[in-house]
């Protein structure tokens, strides 16, 4: 009887400790989430305030009066329609070029045997260790000699030559596809181009979506590239266009925050729309071995 009582107390204490642990963990996660979301909330609140309230001290966490017109004025004053079209063009070309080039190169590394394949793949991986800022000046000099500065060519053409990380990512996915499928295609007379386009890319849909989202996000949020290579206002993208709200003496923070939120929405919507494919692609790619 005493043994049963002791055993019951042990399990009761264990359950109590587990519940306490879960409660503490939940509270910690909620607290961390609130801290991480504070900058986003500050941005939303600022976008709905008047400039006078933004400049007042002490600062307020909630707008005293909501100014929805900030979004309309930011859209019209910031020339968002034109900048959005420019950004969409850059992002669309970037997604197409990266998906085509990276899947094609990754197929070669994953499924075609040729001398020096592993060495070339190692060299390609090694390029990921080179900081992008190191190649910035040589790239600018090269594009300047091509007379590409002032056009979209420096921002779009490099995408057709592949990106090391994305090639590695999709190669890992291709490695998980059975070689028997490739051999069956060859027996039916399919060329490598046909197998790559009709078999490999459809099977690698989650990984392709990951590449597309990463490229779209990179092109949409790109600030440095357009800042260096674009010198006409009519060709600016959204990230450069947002700088029009920053003056030498004052910054129109309410318009800047409203514009920044509008610029964020497409990327957030894209991620939630393709969230299932994105998570599936990342899980499979990280779970396979090259």
Reported for the largest beta sheet, the result is: none
Structural class, judged by helices and strands? mainly alpha
Gross morphology is: flat
What's the average pLDDT?
85
Proportion of β residues? under 5%
Compute the gyration radius: what is it? 26 Å
Supply the number of helical segments: 15
- Contiguous low-pLDDT stretches (5 residues minimum) are none
Helix content: over 70%
How many strand units?
0
Secondary-structure element string: HHHHHHHHHHHHHHH
Amino- and carboxy-terminal Cα gap:
59 Å
Task: State the gist of this model.
This protein has 290 residues and is mostly helical. 72% of the residues lie in helices and 0% in strands. It is flat.
Describe this protein with a few key phrases:
15 helices; 290 residues; single chain
3D architecture notes:
It is a single chain. 72% of the residues lie in helices and 0% in strands. The chain has 290 residues and is mainly α. The chain has 15 helices and no strands. Helix 1 (2-47) crosses helix 14 (253-273). The mean pLDDT is 85. The longest helix has 46 residues, at 2-47. It has helices spanning 2-47, 51-55, 69-77, 80-111, 117-126, 136-145, 153-156, 164-175, 179-187, 192-203, 205-220, 224-229, 238-241, 253-273, 275-287.
Chart the SSEs and their pairings.
Blueprint: H1 2-47, H2 51-55, H3 69-77, H4 80-111, H5 117-126, H6 136-145, H7 153-156, H8 164-175, H9 179-187, H10 192-203, H11 205-220, H12 224-229, H13 238-241, H14 253-273, H15 275-287
């Amino acid at each position: 009887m005493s043994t049963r009582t002791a055993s019951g107390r042990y399990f009761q204490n264990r359950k109590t400790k587990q519940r306490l642990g879960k409660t503490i963990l939940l509270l910690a996660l909620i607290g961390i989430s609130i801290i991480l979301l504070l900058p986003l909330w500050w941005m939303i609140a600022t976008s709905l305030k008047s400039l006078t309230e933004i400049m007042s001290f002490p600062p307020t966490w909630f707008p005293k009066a909501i100014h929805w017109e900030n979004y309309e004025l930011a859209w019209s004053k910031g020339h968002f329609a034109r900048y959005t079209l420019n950004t969409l063009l850059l992002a669309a070309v970037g997604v197409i070029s990266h998906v085509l080039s990276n899947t094609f190169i990754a197929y070669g590394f994953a499924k075609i045997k040729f001398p020096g394949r592993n060495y070339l793949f190692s060299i390609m991986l090694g390029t990921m260790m080179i900081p992008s800022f190191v190649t910035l000046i040589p790239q600018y000099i090269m594009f300047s000699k091509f007379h590409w500065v002032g056009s979209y060519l420096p921002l779009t053409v490099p995408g057709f030559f592949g990106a090391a990380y994305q090639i590695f990512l999709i190669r890992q996915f291709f490695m998980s596809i059975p070689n028997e499928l490739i051999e069956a295609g060859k027996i039916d007379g399919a060329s490598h181009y046909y197998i790559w386009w009709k078999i490999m890319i459809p099977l690698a849909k989650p990984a392709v979506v990951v590449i597309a989202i990463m490229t779209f996000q990179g092109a949409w949020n790109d600030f440095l590239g357009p800042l260096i290579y674009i010198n006409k206002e009519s060709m600016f993208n959204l990230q450069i266009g947002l700088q029009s709200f920053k003056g030498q003496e004052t910054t129109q923070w309410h318009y800047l925050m409203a514009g920044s939120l509008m610029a964020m929405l497409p990327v957030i919507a894209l991620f939630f729309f393709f969230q299932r494919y994105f998570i599936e692609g990342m899980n499979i790619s990280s779970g396979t071995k090259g």
